[in-house]
Amino acid sequence: MPKKITIEPVTRVEGHGKVTIHLDDNLNVVQSRLHIVEFRGFERFVQGRPYWEAPVLVQRLCGICPVSHHLAAAKAIDMLVGAGNGDGLTPTGEKMRRLMHYGQIFQSHSLHFFHLVSPDLLFGIDADPSVRNIIGVAMENKDLAVQGVMMRKFGQEIIEATAGKKIHGTGAIPGGINKNLSIEERDRFLDGKAFPNVDQMIEWSLGALDFFKDYHKKNRDFIDHFAAFPSSHLSLVRKDGALDMYHGVLRAVDAEGKVILNDVDYQDYLDYIGEEVRSWSYMKFPYLKKYGKKNGWYRVGPLARLNTANFIPSPLAQKEFEQFKAYTNGKPNNMSMHMHWARLIEILHAAEMMKELLHDPDLQGEDLVVTGTKQYEGIGLLEAPRGTLFHHYRINEQDQITMANLIVSTTNNNEPMNRAVAEVAREYLTGQEKITEGMLNAVEVAIRAYDPCLSCATHALGKMPLEITLFDSKDQIIDKKRN
Amino acid sequence: MKILFYGYGNPGRQDDGLGIYFVEEMEKFVRDKDISDISFDSNYQLNIEDADTIKNYDLVFFCDASQENIDDYCITKVSPSDAHIEFTMHAVSPAFVLNLCKNIYNMAPDTYLIHIKGYSWHFMEKISKQADKNFQSALCYFEKLLQQQKNLLP
C-alpha cells in the first residue's frame, strides 16, 4: 500500500516546515518534498512607511538573524540617500558595520556548530535525542560546550556594542552608522576581563576546526557521501575574488567550477535571477535565468562562498581554505556535510576580522555619515550566515516605500534542501516500514546542514516542536509521532 | 540575594513583546523605588549563552508571551528536567537554559517563568488591549511583591 510520511515541525506563528515522503507499494521512495511556509507579508507591510525606518523595521522580520536584515536594508537605503552602492561610506561607518556583521556571522555559525552539529558528531545521528544535544555535549565534553556558549556570547556582545542594543538595534542608519566604538567598549573585547577575549575566540575557532577534521578522518564515508549531490554555487565575492561577506559582486560557478555568473553588479540582479513558484510550496525557487528553471538553481551559504571565492583575506582562515580546496583538487566541493567544514573556516575568518577591526583606530572616528543626492531605488545585498540575502526597495517623492522585494538565504537554498532531503530519503527510508528516530534525524541532519531559518521571530510559549504523521494511500492518518 | 528579570520576545510582533515590555516597566519601578540587587536583561529569544548570563544569580524570572490556555498570567517553577529538544534549536526554553547552566557551571539558580497571555502577533509594536490588561495585572503583582520585600529590609 503506498504511504505518505510527513515530518512536520510546527514551531512558530509564521514560518514552519514539513517533509513529505511518498512510498510506493514496494516501499520505494518515489517523491520527497520539503515544504516551508515562508511569510511574505512583510514586503507588503513596509509599503507606505518612510524609507529611513526600513533598517529598524526589518528586524521585526526575524529574531534569529535581525542583524543581517538590518545591514542589508541599510545598504539599500544608503543608495536612496545617495551614499553609494555599498562602498561609499566613511571608514568609520563601513568598519563599524563590518564589525557588527562579523559578530553576527561568528555567533550564528558558532551556535550552529556547537549546538546543532557537535551533538550529531559526538553521539551519532542514531543516538537518543535526549542525549544528542548540547546538554549531552556538556556532560560528555564540557570544554566544548563552554566554548560554544562563550563564542555565542562574544558575538552577541559585539552586536550590542555596534548596534547599540540587542533588540531592534539602531546602529546602521541611512548613509552610515549612528555611533562609533569607544575605547572602553573596544577594550572589553581585548582585555579578557568580562569574558574571554578575541584571541581566545581565534584559538577556540582553530580548536573547533581540529575537532571537525579529526571526526572527518575517522568518518570519511559519512561526511563525504551523506546527502552529497552536484550543484551550482552562488555568492558575493570581493572584486578581486576574495571572500567578502559584507560587499562585493555576484559570482556563480557550476558543479565543475566553470564560472557561470561572472562578477556582475548586484544592482542588476533582476537581469540574472528569477524566482519560480511551485504549486506545492509557499516558498519560491530562485534560479539563474540564463540556465532556466530546471538547471539554473544554485546553493548559497558557507559551502557556496568557499566554492566561489579565490582566497580568504585573513591568514589563518586562508591556510584552512587551502586545505579545504585541496581536498577536492581545487574543484567545487559538493558534499553537503562539508558545509560544516566551510562554516568553521568562516568562524575563524570572522574571528580574525574582528581582531583586525578592533585594533583599527578608524572605529573611534567621528565622521559617521555621508549624504548625497536622493535616489528612488536601492538594492542591498550581503552574505548572511546562511547565504546571500537580497533587499530591494523603491520609494516615491514623499519618501514612502512603494515596493519591497526580499530574497532570503533560506529561499535561495530551497531547491538544494529539497535535493538533500531526496538523497537522504532514498538512502535511509527505502524499504522501511517503520520510521526510527535515526531515520527521522537523518532527514533533519540534511536540512540542518543548511541551517535554514524556518521561524519569523515570534516564538510565544505553547507551540510544539516536531510532529511526524504517517498517511496511507487514502491520506488517512495511520501514525503520528512527536519528538 | 541577586535577582535577574529576563524578558524575551519580539516587540515588533505585537503581543510577542510582552516579556520585553514587562522587564522595561519593572526596571523603571525598581529604579524609582531604589531597590538594589535586581538586574534586567532582554533579547528576541533565549539561547545557549544565557546559561552564562544566569549563572551569577540566586533567583531568575524569565518572562514571555504565552499562547497557552491561561486566563491572564501565571508563574511556574522552571526545572532543568523540563528541558526538551526542538527541531532547529535557534531558540531554547528557560528549562533548557537552566539545564545547560547546571551542566556546565554546576549552578542552578531558582528559576521561574512568568507567562503573560497574548492574542495578536502582527507586524506592529502596539500590544493588544486584552494583552495589555494581562500585562498590567502581572506588573501590579510583582510591584507589590518587590515593595513588600523592600519594606521587610532593615
For the terminal residues of chain B, how far apart are their CA atoms?
14 Å
Q: Order of strands side by side in the largest beta sheet of chain B?
A: 2-1-3-5-4
| Mean residue pLDDT of chain A | 87
Count up the helices of chain A. 17
CATH superfamily of chain B: HybD-like
Fraction of residues in H or I helices of chain B: 25-40%
Our Rg estimate of chain A from Cα atoms comes to: 22 Å
Note the total helix count of chain B.
4
Number of strands of chain B: 5
Mean pLDDT of chain B: 89
Strand proportion of chain A, as a percent range, falls in: 15-25%
Low-confidence stretches of chain B: none
Helix coverage percent of residues of chain A? Answer: 40-55%
Number of domains of chain B: 1
Shape, per Cα inertia axes of chain B: globular
Largest sheet of chain B, if any? 5 strands, mixed
Provide a compact summary of the structure.
The complex is a heterodimer of chains A (483) and B (154). By secondary structure, chain A is an alpha+beta fold.
What this model shows, in words?
- By secondary structure, chain A is α+β, with helices and mostly antiparallel strands.
- Among the domains of chain A are: 3-37 and 435-482, no CATH class; 91-169 and 181-228 and 335-351, no CATH class.
- Chain A is built from 17 helices and 16 strands.
- In chain A, helix 4 (91-123) runs antiparallel to helix 6, helix 6 packs across helix 8 (198-218) and helix 8 runs antiparallel to helix 14 (338-358).
- Chain B is built from four helices and five strands.
- Chain B is α/β, with parallel strands linked by helices.
- Chain B has a five-stranded mixed beta sheet with strand order 2-1-3-5-4, with helices on one face.
- The two termini of chain B are 14 Å apart.
- The model of chain B has no long low-confidence stretch (mean pLDDT 89).
- Chain B has one domain (3-152): 3-Layer(aba) Sandwich (Rossmann fold), CATH 3.40.50.
- At the A-B interface, helix 1, helix 4, helix 5 and helix 6 of A face helix 2, strand 3 and helix 3 of B.
